[in-house]
Amino acid sequence: MNVLVFLIPLAILLGLLALYGLFWSLKRNQYEDMEGAAYRILLDDDIEKK
Amino acid sequence: MGAAPDFTHFVRTDEDGRSRLDLAIDGITCAACLPDIETAMKRLPGVKLARLNLTSHRLALTYDPQQVEPARFTGALEAIGYRAYPYEQRQVEADEQARFVLLLKCLGVAVFAAMNIMLLSISVWSGQSTSLPPETRDFFHLVSAVIALPAAAYAGQPFFTSAWAAIRQRRLNMDVPITIGVTLALGLSVYETQHHADHAYFDSAIMLLAFLLAGRVVDQAMRRRTKTAAGNLAALKGENALRFDGAEWGLVPVAALAPGDRLLVRAGERVPADGVIVEGLSAVDESAITGETDPKPVEPGDHVYAGTVNGEGALTVDVTAAGHSALIDEAARLIEQAGAARSRYMQLSDRVSQLYAPAVHLTALVTGLSWWLFFGASPHDALVIAISVLIITCPCALALAVPTVQAMASGAFFRSGLFLNDARGLEKLGEIDAVVFDKTGTLTLPQAGVANADEIPADLLELAGRLARSSHHPLALALARSLRARAPLPEARETSGQGVSAPHEGDEARLGSAAFCAAEHLATDAEASSIYVRAGERVAQLSIRQSLRPDAARVVAHLRDAGLDLHILSGDRAEAVAPVAEKLGIADWRGGQKPAEKIAFVEALKAQGKRVLMVGDGLNDAPALAAAHASISPIDAVHLTQGQADAVFLGDRLLPVAAALAISQQARALMKQNLGFAIVYNAIAVPVAMAGHASPLFAALAMSGSSILVTLNALRLRGPGKSVTLLAKPLRDQP
Questions:
Q1: Residue where one domain finishes, among candidates B37, B63, B88
Q2: Rounded to an integer, what distance in angstroms lies between the CA atom of residue B403 and that of residue B710?
Q3: Per-residue pLDDT tens over the stretch B28-39
Q4: Which of B279, B370, B605, B633 has a 20 to 30 A CA-CA distance from B660?
């Protein structure tokens, strides 16, 4: 049972990490344009630059 | 005078001296537009950043004001086929956005907590049949408490604030029992944990919050989407006005006008703001306000209203503050009277929660007391059972039953070209059994158009539109607008009072009176005006009139088949209403109606026990819209009128009205089913809890089961249904 002392904090830590990710992405307005983001990855915007 | 408009009103400057401008963009059809627009913008000198949001169809620009004029952006966009207009974020929209972010954060916290607590709870539940040492169980409960308490305090915010607001106004809403349930569940669990008891309800409390928040996030996402689209439409409708700034005339956006500004309204233009005429004689088409299609002569000293269309003379107008006209004051007064009845309407979910909260709390109390007094339970056990009744009945399914359907319905509205102004409208639209239509701008298209367009060769029609662009005659302006004509022909010359001519493909093209085009004058009906077009040897007669919306007859027939009682009430002359009523087969129609008479008619129908839907666009319809049980108006309607409508529809078709009714009826049926489910669930779960058998496992299963059931049921609502979508089919096949 001693392993619990390890595993429970680990589980909570992983959860908190994901939660931090959500807050970070919200703060950076990552949910502003769900459609555009899907296409942006396909654009070769570096070719256009002079 | 044709200079580019001045967008200074919309430009913001940041600390680095760079300017920021947001544009709403029309014409985005696919993802390929994204690089198109962004590269076109970046090619302009001085543009630092151009980012298009493909979801909201808005373009954010950051640029150096020294190097580029904002008007060049719209020009460059127009050149590649997009219409753009500066966009000003309104407070409502910013609030919706902030609320969405808060709900999403709360949901994140609740889901995080629910996952971790479930991990512990499932171990405890399975440990009860095997051999979990009591110390480990207590430790798990303690860890659950440490996670649950702060998480609930954070994730519960939306419910706590709403419940508190309701209680302060001495009302009850769904959030009151939710708040009480969550608080008691947590309090009891903490107490039980301290006393090394078997059961703790941390998981139930947190799961309840997570489910409810998920429902609200979906609802809010839908609402945000419609608000954004509505904001874009409002921006793109934005017109420019010619304003005199003391030295010269300049184009400014209508949003930037203030009382006292002096404006020039040219022949055929829309009056941009309410005002008093200082100079000029003309006739003004006030059909947008009164429904009357005959222009009204005006002279200096007369009032003109925003949304009316100027006739043949140019007018100089001083802008006055809105709401000063007798007509608008009268309308506002009538709206206030008529609207009183409307605010008394109670939503289904509110009606249920008025009964629900007292009933549930009473049940819990009676349960606790009877265990203590009659069945000899200790006060502690009786209290635990009473609270478990509250936890079980905590209205998870009930609170999800209506919002999930609302979210689905507003999505379906959106896809059918409708915006819901008010969530209450959905329920009211579902109860309709009589429909009253206004004529001008509602059954007919808001602008006059070519009635015989399909009899005329397409190239001649296009030519006529382009010729019309060069003229300031009201008929020509109406023609150009309705044909969506592109650039005028080069070297076009206007012969005053007769027509326009221009060289075209080695010959001459003419647009104008029969004599001017050397055409034979053909008699038409009294309502239409004729204009002729000639290209070389070919001549065609265009008959310009207020025409019915293309699918009006079909939609009206559909509504009649659906058993609705149909009427027409118009402010226009009886002679103008009669042919429309006849064509649509509506037997009960009235012309020349004043706003008060319209209200009286609606009230009379209501007195017969009918639930009336009013569909109208004019200012004269606004009071009747407020008096009716539910109301819809087209997007072209004047501002005051749109504000009264429960829903607003887009486009040239009448179909959205039929779709609105079909969707709302389905939504209402689904809401009732869902509420039924929730009640059946309670009927099964409450006796179990009252008997004292509600273990945390039972609570968790019952709660998530019922929540998932009502959500899945709501997902069945996708669109207006086959009978309405089929109405659109044959129209779509036409070119």
A1: B88
A2: 10
A3: 877 778 888 888
A4: B605
